[in-house]
Write a structure and sequence with these properties.
8% strand, 3-stranded antiparallel sheet, mainly alpha, SAM-dep_MeTrfase_MraW_recog, 8 helices, DNA polymerase, domain 1, Rossmann fold, S-adenosyl-L-methionine, 206 residues
Length: 206
């Protein structure tokens, strides 16, 4: 699934005071990121950072955010992260994961992806192909599962016919591993570094 990347997440700079960020709507009202950070309980923020950002320091960052409220600008958020994460590459990666988590939560990106993957099963005819470009493991994991077993949440292998043992999955992956950008592509577009492209052909099953 394509989407805006967290530009603010790639830098530890604290000079950004804009109310809108790549983490989604950063307004203080509605369902924006700032509203979430200012109103959710600490354990709820921790869950978002852990689930959608896979951030190992989710608990410490959530506590720092709550202690340093209100979160009005991106600088406030960056300062809260920097207060509990070592500087340098560790801070840059943690910041990127936090912004990813907020963006995914605010925009319901995984919900949108799951809806598309579910609909594709009805839209694509047998012999047709589904191609998905994902930019982080949360997306790629779901795409991989659907293309292998037909289920978004099941990590098991594809279902098989009880009599002959034939695979009964609705999709047949064209490759066992995803296609990744070449070194030349990464040089030309650094944001492509995390891209994973998977493709599968619609079968006659299910």
């Amino acid at each position: 699934m394509g989407g805006s990347s967290a530009d603010s997440g790639s830098s530890s700079s604290n000079n950004n005071t804009t109310p809108a960020t790549a983490a989604g709507d950063y307004s203080s009202g509605g369902g924006g990121a700032a509203h979430m950070l200012n109103h959710l309980a600490e354990h709820e923020i921790q869950t978002i950072l852990k689930t959608y950002g896979e951030e190992p320091r989710a608990k410490a960052i959530a506590r720092s955010i709550v202690e340093m409220r209100p979160m009005v600008t991106t600088s406030d958020l960056l300062n809260a992260i920097a207060a509990c994460v070592p500087s340098g590459p560790v801070l840059r990666k943690a910041t990127a994961r936090v912004f990813q988590a907020l963006r995914v939560a605010v925009n319901d990106e995984l919900g949108a992806l799951e809806a598309i993957l579910t609909a594709a099963r009805q839209i694509v005819r047998p012999g047709g192909r589904l191609v998905v470009l994902s930019y982080h493991s949360l997306e790629d994991r779901r795409v991989k599962r659907v293309m292998r077993s037909g289920s978004i949440h099941s990590a098991s292998g594809p279902p098989r016919d009880a009599v002959f043992g034939n695979v009964m999955a609705p999709w047949k992956p064209l490759k066992s591993v995803p296609s990744k950008p070449t070194k030349e592509e990464v040089v030309a577009n650094s944001r492509s570094r995390s891209a994973h492209l998977r493709a599968a052909e619609r079968t006659c099953c299910a």
